[in-house]
Write a structure and sequence with these properties.
Chain lengths: 412, 412
């Protein structure tokens, strides 16, 4: 007798626990940096699980892992998934939840003995985090043709190894050509990584789009000098200039308001000694906005400020663009699909924008895409204390399963 | 025939060149961190040279090297010297000049066949810079009883080794007891490390005292969060708090004016990533003033500011005192001695305070002390481009020689 497919929460939690033993950090959280030994072990486990539930596994040349479940017709597949790599001090759900919930959806269909008109394709994209190798979402970016494979291979990580070397070393430079499947649609289930759903007591977020992002590395060259002997007005102090930038970036974001964010997350001083006026500083500025023209304005205001600052501080300031992605808006019918599915499951749902980048942002160039968010306690993300309640994990997986089923029945 | 002793500039320059081959950096400047292989090589050369000109060499338990030249009477010796270690990117003269000029003064006396009533003692103190092992002026501080030998031995350096281990490894944990000679007086010749003499066209500085110094390590704990998803007003950003401190410290020093200096020289962020709001920051604040009560006021203003900042930024701020030395005033008769000697040599001289710490600051606890400064081009210091013109090197050495001769003839 055919039953309606249902998410088995215990099976999903069991897989999350088992997978998170890989790269577990002593105090909690996980470190599975892209293409590391831990990433390899995670990939091996995922491939095994995919095969155990009958998915046909392909690995493409950038290491994206795609498990296909046949449909009744030879149509473009419905793709869903996320990533299994983490930042250096990552949490238990970022990326992994979307992949394992997709695996659970496939297994739920198996148990219900249910086929779909379209094939299904569960994907784990390579190096979404970008913590070891820039840029983030590398696997999906290569998949959609936004970055040439050879360029990606040549990227050198923070430890000196290249993407190409490491892919070969861990055995995940596959034969499939990135982009070999053009999906009918792409869905990505993910924790919110922010506080909105929790604060407003929603269980599901229907993601309207992804914030645009501008990353700038700022290098300041002043003059090293003795902290005890150099008069204040003769200094060319790279640390003071750094301080002014950190204060300005926050004021800029607060002044613009709305969705504007601004962060100085990295600061390196040279020679970085208590009694030496800093000669050089390298810092990063992360600006984000959901509105393309506002993001451009923020970029311009930063550039203007740095120009004034260089004169005022008698330092040289050089900038280098580390990343720039325009905001992405997901198609209205995809966002509605998530809302409708949540409503049918009686799950409180609101629309929101993602402030974080995701593989869905790249996949949107190739096919209709959107994301499903579930709450993150305290909005914590990229933090070992990241937490989402089991009932929310179950709710998100159910929305994913049911939205996939609707998409898989679509003819066009 | 006895001639008047005279500094031989070429001999002094030759020794500076030869010594500075040790730990020479590719682009100029020197790295002879305390108790490193390079420091050992420098010490070995100094001991050889001391012996070649007939000094009796003693090494004390903290590694201070003292070369004694006998006097006509068994009186307290006149001590002079400085240090031969450098910061990581040090110049050619800081410390070394004072030692080699002292060596040259002794050799000039030999060549003039001149004895002195009092013995002379040329000293090279251990670890004046404090770059590898805190605190600075460790050798002289132990010598005057300001730091217990066992405490100094236990100090762990930035590379994990301890002072005791490294002293034994390089063979400079000597037998003499620190403080075994109580000098009649102490004189230290040094480059100014600041711009005053050059800017005002003086050749000699008679040092009235040494600026007091307060070093504070500030640790800020906020909360790591995603740079794209965390609303600006919910952040507890350790990097923003750091920026506010860097800006405040400068404003504090400029607002107080006079001799007040303020420097944030070291900043470390964690996790220090472009897209993560910094959870933690550790930075240093270096405050200096020649006036003890003003320095105390500056300390208090910093403490008050940090308290307000912690509330305003919703971060925890802890402080740790890294060093605190009260301003030192040298005895008027010692300062006058330098002035008089310079005047007799027709060298333009002015009084000034030292903004940098020196071994003379510690020795002043034990005996009358002062310093002789010569100009530093551009005021550069702790910088590979540190430079003092040969005629100024000669002038300083001549003042040292003649001031030493005056002191060595004093009965009481």
């Amino acid at each position: 007798m055919r039953t309606s497919p249902r998410i088995d929460l215990q099976r999903l939690l069991g897989r999350l626990d088992a997978f998170n033993r890989i790269g577990a950090l002593p105090g909690g959280g996980n470190c599975r940096l892209a293409l590391s030994e831990e990433d390899r072990a995670g990939r091996d486990l995922l491939v095994r699980w995919m095969r155990e539930i009958g998915l046909r596994v392909s690995v493409d040349a950038i290491g994206n892992i795609i498990g296909t479940r046949a449909g009744r017709e030879e149509l473009a597949p419905v793709m869903f998934g996320s990533h299994v790599d983490t930042v250096g001090t990552g949490g238990r759900y970022d990326g992994l939840y979307g992949v394992l919930a997709g695996l659970e959806a496939c297994e739920a269909l198996n148990h219900a003995d249910q086929t779909t008109r379209r094939p299904l394709a569960l994907v784990a994209f390579t190096n979404e985090e970008g913590s070891r190798f820039p840029p983030y979402a590398m696997g999906s970016l290569v998949y959609v043709g936004g970055l040439a494979l050879e360029e990606a291979y040549a990227v050198r990580g923070i430890d000196g190894a290249t993407v190409g070397e490491e892919l070969r070393r861990i055995g995940y430079a596959g034969n499939a050509c990135p982009g070999f499947l053009t999906p009918h649609a792409y869905l990505e289930l993910h924790i919110e990584q922010g506080p909105i759903l929790e604060n407003e007591h929603f269980v599901i977020g229907a993601v309207e789009g992804i914030t645009g992002l501008s990353w700038t590395e700022v290098s300041i060259t002043g003059r090293s000098a003795h902290a005890g002997t150099t008069p204040m007005d003769l200094r060319r102090d790279a640390a003071c200039a750094t301080g002014e930038i950190a204060v300005f970036v926050r004021r800029l974001a607060q002044g613009m308001g709305g969705q504007q964010k601004g962060t100085v997350g990295r600061i390196e001083l040279y020679p970085n000694l208590v009694n030496v006026v800093a000669e050089r500083a390298v810092l990063t500025v992360d600006l984000r906005n959901t509105d393309a023209s506002l993001l451009q304005q923020a970029d311009q205001q930063l550039a203007d400020f740095l120009e004034r600052l260089a004169q005022q501080e008698h330092v040289a300031i050089a900038t280098r663009r580390l990343a720039r992605f325009e905001p992405v808006s997901f198609p209205a019918e995809m966002v509605s699909l998530v809302e409708t599915t949540a409503r049918e499951l009686a799950l409180p749902c609101r629309r929101l924008f993602s402030g974080a980048g995701h593989d869905a942002q790249m996949m949107a160039r190739l096919c209709p895409a959107t994301m499903i968010f579930v709450p993150s306690v305290g909005g914590l993300s990229h933090n070992v204390h990241e937490y989402t309640a089991p009932e929310h994990l179950e709710a998100g997986a159910s929305v994913l399963l049911n939205a996939v089923l609707r998409l898989a029945d679509e003819v066009e």
